[in-house]
Amino acid sequence: MQVIELLVKLKMPDVTALTAASALRRRMGYAEVLHDLQRADYYALHLQVDSQQTALALAEELADKTNLFVNPNKHTYELRIAGQRGAPVPEDGVWPVEVLVTDAEGAEAEDIQQALHERLGYVEQVQSVAQGTLWIMKLSAPDAEAATQLAQQITITQARAEGQDWKIL
């Protein structure tokens, strides 16, 4: 079993991420530490194939040839092998931290998996699909641990929606 992460971003400016960044800077006091905030639709594709290269090729096929993940007119995408991101690398004291927010119900992922199996015939190759929203924060901090703690502080809000969970990747 191979797990491939598919990250789907908008080609145009993401007004949701821009609005969230503005609120974090202006209303929540993170202007000095939040350098950038990006958002991507996140899919973890659990693929029953024999190698990472085959898994990457299959994930690329799913992204390019189905309409389930990517609209080529408005999205770009990136594929990566789960668990092989490596340590974050700072640029001038700014650390990237990824926060994955998932829906506990997972209804959208189930619909995608059902379409892959029943409509498109990927029954054997696609074992399961997980879905969420990946927030990429670029934060000023003295080290990776401080950046992670700051990302946790930003992520945990008083009005967190019920049924959602999050984790630092």
Short description:
By secondary structure, the chain is of the alpha+beta class. Helix content is about 30%, strand content about 35%. It has helices spanning about 15-25, 50-65, 105-120, 145-155, and strands at about 1-10, 35-45, 75-80, 95-105, 125-140, 165-169.
Spell the H/E element sequence.
EHEHEEHEHE
- Helix segment count? 4
Quote the beta fraction: 35-45%
How does the overall form come out from the CA principal axes? elongated
Helix amount: 25-40%
* Strand elements, count: 6
Radius of gyration: 17 Å
Low-confidence stretches: none
Q: Calculate the terminal CA-CA distance, rounded to whole Å.
A: 20 Å
Can you walk me through this structure?
- The structure is a single chain.
- This protein is an alpha+beta fold and 169 residues long.
- It has one domain (2-168): 2-Layer Sandwich (Mth169, Chain: A).
- 30% of the residues lie in helices and 36% in strands.
- The chain is built from four helices and six strands.
- The protein has helices at 15-26, 52-65, 107-119, 144-155; strands at 2-10, 34-47, 75-81, 94-103, 126-140, 164-168.
- A six-stranded antiparallel sheet has the order 3-1-2-5-4-6.
- The chain is elongated, with a radius of gyration of 17 Å.
Write the layout of secondary structure elements.
Elements: E1 2-10, H1 15-26, E2 34-47, H2 52-65, E3 75-81, E4 94-103, H3 107-119, E5 126-140, H4 144-155, E6 164-168
Antiparallel strand pairs: 1-2, 1-3, 2-5, 4-5, 4-6
